[in-house]
Amino acid sequence: MSVVELASELEDLLGSVGVSVDERVRRTASTDWAHMSPVLSAKLPAGLADVVAFPRTPEELARVLQAAYRRRVPVTPRGKGTGNYGQAIPLADGLVIDLTRCRRILEIGDGYMKAEAGATFVVMEAAAHRAGQDVCVFPSTVGSTVGGFISGGSGGTGSVEHGRTWDGNILALDVVPCTEDADLLARKGFEETLPFCHAFGTSGIVATATVRLAPARQWTALFTSFEHFADAVEAGRQIMALDPPPRLLSIDDPGLVEHYGDPAAMPLGKVSLRAIIDTSVVSDAGAVVTAAGGTVEEVRPKGAGLLTSLSFNHSTYRLRKARPEFTHLQVGGAGLVERTREAREVLPETLLHLDGVQGPSYAGMLMCRYDGEAALLAGIRGLEGLGVTVSSPHTWELHHDRVGLIRSTAARLDPAGLLNPGKLPAA
Ligand SMILES: Cc1cc2nc3c(=O)[nH]c(=O)nc-3n(C[C@H](O)[C@H](O)[C@H](O)COP(=O)(O)OP(=O)(O)OC[C@H]3O[C@@H](n4cnc5c(N)ncnc54)[C@H](O)[C@@H]3O)c2cc1C
Known about the structure:
The structure is a single chain. With 427 residues, this protein is an alpha+beta fold. The protein is 32% helix and 24% strand. It has 3 domains: 2-98, Uridine Diphospho-n-acetylenolpyruvylglucosamine Reductase, domain 2, CATH 3.30.43.10; 105-216, Uridine Diphospho-n-acetylenolpyruvylglucosamine Reductase, domain 3; 219-391, Vanillyl-alcohol Oxidase, Chain A, domain 3, CATH 3.40.462.40. It is globular. Flavin-adenine dinucleotide binds at residues 32-33, 36, 76-84, 87-88, 99, 117, 139-141, 144-145, 147-149, 151-156, 200-201, 205-206, 312-314, 317, 420.
């Protein structure tokens, strides 16, 4: 009953185009990329929105949250639904707030851009370029929203130099709590914005984000190949130490490269190292590659977009399209590059994709044949024993070292526990 009443109240607030109870719309608003994980595909409880709201402004968002709070209806915020842990799936049904219509770029200045939560990185990067700047960090899912990236993602293109989202790349947020008098709360700087980073919207809903921009560089795409993985890893380390550092640097096993197409730039049977680099360091990077025993295959001025689409979880996506029997783990840590040979023996048919991150060091995706959840969990323990850190993409609950901070923030900003229920594990 409260949901029916909420739908009618939302129609008064947003007009009939701003709210939907149509089954097709509700189903679309209740999915994400959890199907990337065979564990989640089998175990994630299905949730289905009862009603979907499409606020167009932060002020409308605040009024929607007030209405949901009064009727104690669970609320799941949503950007483009590209998250891959089921984090946008409304496990307790209720209201899904789709923020993709709340998407204006509000302000661009020297070193910053303020945008509404539903702005996509395609639009933000184009706007930054018109102002002679680059967005510091964005994910390989360039069509995803800034609110979704801050709340569900971590890093991507730009992370070699600028780190993860929470490493100073979010300058300010306006967040909306789920309370009777919900209104925009201004949060500035690292300390105040941290409780909303990778929080799945459980501690408040991001209405606007002010993200860091840097002066634009002349980026170009470098494609190189190696016989041996270890040589590519060493060359990558040296390229990441160049000034300026690459915007992105990725390394793939030949077993992944065969699914990428473009064999002229990424020859079959070879390890591929690719990087988005400033044109001023092309010859230095080439010299590093040659000295490490590699070959420069191509320098492609308009290739940066392609390299982004072969980075981070896009590597998993491309492999699984061809070989759905594979699964992935998000990995990092010293063991990944220092004990690679042993790490490859832990899980069956292991393939490695690495991305450079701030340090400089490497994080990446370890892909393997999926022989069931028990075997995968045993494999995670085996990898951790080698000093490989594993962030499992096979759970829908938040598990990281800032969950306590998120929980205490949620206790204040979501006193009735209505925001994205089921994602914040019990204390
Ligand atoms: C093929 C593939 C590649 C990927 N590559 C990367 C990558 O390079 N780097 C990376 O970090 N991630 C990556 N991801 C994960 C995901 O794409 C990113 O985190 C993305 O930025 C999420 O944005 P979205 O708009 O799709 O958010 P959604 O998936 O809609 O939402 C993500 C989470 O944030 C919450 N949320 C959404 N909007 C808000 C808001 N305004 N306020 C509060 N909470 C909100 C949702 O409830 C959900 O919990 C990848 C995923 C796939 C499938």
